[in-house]
Amino acid sequence: MTDDQKELRTLTYRDAIREAIHEAMQKDARVFLMGEDVGRYGGCFAVSKRLLEAFGPERIRDTPLSESGFVGAGIGAALGGMRPIVEIMTVNFSLLAAVQIINNAAVYLYMSGGQFNVPIVIRMATGGGRQLAAQHSRSLEGWYAHIPGIKVVSPATLEDARGMLWTALQDPDPVLIFENAGLYNMEGTLAGDAGAVDIDKAHVQRAGKDITIITYSANLYKSLEAAEILAKQGIDAEVIDLRTLRPLDDQTFLASVAKTHRALIVDEGWRSGSISAEISARIMEGAFYELDLPVERLCSVEAPMPYAKHMEDAVLPQVDKIVALVRKMVGANG
Amino acid sequence: MAKMTMVQALNLALRQEMERDENVIVLGEDVGVDGGVFRVTDGLHEAFGEERVVDTPLAENGIVGMSIGMAVYGLRPVCEIQFSGFAYQNFHQIENHASRLRWRSQGRYHVPMVLRAPYGGGVRALEHHSESREAFWAHIPGLKMVIPSGPRSARALLVSAIRDPDPVIFYEAKALYRAFREEVPEEEETLPLGESRIAREGDDLTLISYGAMLRPTLSAAEQLEKEDGVSAEVIDLLTISPLDDTLFVTSVKKTGHAMIVHEAPMSFGPGAEIIARLVEKAFYYLEVPIGRVTGYDVVIPLFAREKDYIPSVERITHEARRILET
User: Fold this and answer.
1) Biggest distance spanned by C-alpha atoms of chain A
2) CA–CA separation, A231 and A39 (whole Å)
3) Interface test with A, best of B139, B243, B263, B303 (most A CBs within 10 A)
4) Least C-beta-crowded within 10 Å: which of A163, A190, A227, B254?
């Protein structure tokens, strides 16, 4: 390895994903990208900018506005031996392709008696906070996490944005990658040789001893910010980035709760039937006797996402809400 | 009162509501001339004509989109999706339109529609015809998700669903359609949406269930009483969302032990939300961790292995004994 490869570079989350796509296309001729405006326009969030010039229209394919059609085509291509990366503009529109994902991609391996794998990767933007209102701001990744037969990952860091795609492409089964659109502009540094990372382990992003905050994607940063504020107030919070939502790595957060005896889940999804519910249930099943007090959940308000900035802020989990809830929990038993 | 199967009871509800309110329209695949694949709409086409009992093409997205339009216009559409496994075709219509039109229009429009769909296994059906995926709907604000547990509750809840001003997803367990009969009164009967009920009283353990799983849960409770002297309380949720947590929280405060039985896969399933609520509202009353007896985290198997997937009386009693012995 040269020094050049080791050197840290400054780039955005968006750049990291683009690099990952670029590298995958170079390394494997079966990989191609397909979706609405991914080609000439460079992607609606500019993730695929200049890829058309680099790889041509056969491998960077603009599709009609027809989610069910192009996800179906992606499944067919995967069955035929290709390694498609399908981009859906936002998770809300993925519902138009839900039948393809649930009834086809997720079950072919089983329905064919193990004859056919569907090695498709579907990327989509998720999350609120950008004043895009009710039909462009949902967090439905927990909903997809209920489906047996697929994997659901949600990169929060530049390392994961850069490294999860290649691992997902190596997986013989469908992988859904949820990219929080609020992260695309996030800038940071990445090693020159950053590459593939695992897609089955949660990470402890901040070690602490008083409470475990379990979160993922964009809320990782709100949780870390809250942890710093809490540290100044003498509360030492451990923050866990789930990274993969299905299959859920419960060992990492169970070990943490066994140490801190308190758990708070921060999840941008609607509270009822959310990821946070399954995590709370797993803690109940796996760490009940370690708990000093009930597991708490901080989720989005159960309403369609408002457009007005102050209302959207009120709907989403925020740093001050995390701080207040943790103080209440630690104080309640402190 | 007449003894009816769930199919007959649902048919009675539809017939009486169509007589009572001319705005009630039934539509779906084969619901008209053929009377529905499970015969739920039998005779309605003859009685009310093709204007009110509409045979549609095989286009679930269209059926639901059309229903939303009718409902906004002032009608009361009751659409049938032939199997709940085909309802994913119209998630977009339900999530992005039906569930939020009241909110988006600041209360000017509402969507009084019912989506009926048979769900669940146990009838030796093929793939896409046996799933239990109520969790998808239960996570969406603005929707009500209802699952009756027998003929009488099915009739009373369907009437309430048709009269509700907002969209209701109504799942009917295929395994219950003709499994047993119950007394169903000819005169009008409704049950409130959003309220659970105690199906059996007890003091030692709370079993929470709904739909097709209520009967094996009740049988397990009887067996536990007979063989172990354990008195189990059984809660029948009836509405999965919005979830009525008052009854089961009160029950668990009394019994200190809780277990959930559902047919849906475990991870991220309806049981997770119930556990989370109990952790939040009854934590200090719990003597041991809450148990879950559910479908497994795999695609529901084809009929040869179906019985191994669906919770049985044996699995329920086994888990109940483990909890009580902890």
Assistant:
1) 61
2) 46
3) B139
4) B254
Edge-to-edge order in the sheet of strand B24-28: B53-55, B24-28, B76-80, B114-119, B168-173, B144-146, B239-241
Q: pTM for this one?
A: 0.93
Pair type for strands A203-206 and B2-4: unpaired
In chain B, what are the domains?
Answer: 2-184 (3.40.50.970), 197-325 (3.40.50.920)
- Nearest chain B residue to A250, by CA: B267
**Is there a contact between B276 and A98 if contact means CB atoms under 8 Å apart?**
no
Closest chain A CA to residue B297: A148
CA distance B57 to B66: 12
User: Which chain A residue has the Cα nearest residue B296?
Assistant: A148
Distance of CA B52 to the CA centre of its chain: 25
Q: Kindly report the backbone phi and psi dihedral angles of residue A58, in degrees, each rounded to the nearest multiple of 5, phi listed first.
A: -70, -30
Upstream peptide bond of B242 is cis (omega within 30 degrees of 0): yes
**Is B267–A146 a contact, with Cβ atoms under 8 angstroms apart?**
yes
- Kindly determine whether residue B95 and residue A246, on different chains, have CB atoms separated by under 8 Å: no
Task: With CB atoms and an 8 Å threshold, state whether A146 touches B268.
Answer: yes
CB B258 within 8 A of CB B249: no
Which has the closest alpha carbon to A208: A182, A228, A180, A190? A228
Give dist(CA A138, CA A88) in Å, integer.
Answer: 13
pLDDT digits (tens, 9 = 90+) for B256-309: 999 999 999 999 999 999 999 999 999 999 999 999 999 999 988 888 888 999
Domains of chain A: 3-190 (3.40.50.970), 203-332 (3.40.50.920)
Per residue in A199-222, pLDDT tens? Answer: 999 999 999 999 999 999 999 999
Strands B232-236 and B239-241: unpaired
Name the closest residue on chain A to residue B126, using Cα atoms: A111
Cα-Cα end-to-end distance for chain B: 46
Min Cα separation A155/chain B (Å): 20
Number of CB pairs, chain A paired with chain B, less than 8 A apart: 135
| Residue A67 among the catalytic residues | yes
Q: Do A146 and B269 lie within an 8 Å CB cutoff?
A: yes
B104 touching A (Cβ < 8 Å)? yes
ipTM over the 0.85 cut-off = yes
- How far away is chain A from the Cα of B150, in angstroms, using its nearest Cα? 25
Residues of B acting as catalytic residues: 129
Of B32, B87, B31, give the one whose Cα is nearest residue B59.
B87
Interface test with A, best of B82, B92, B259 (most A CBs within 10 A): B92
Nearest CB among B100, B241, B269 relative to A134 is that of B100
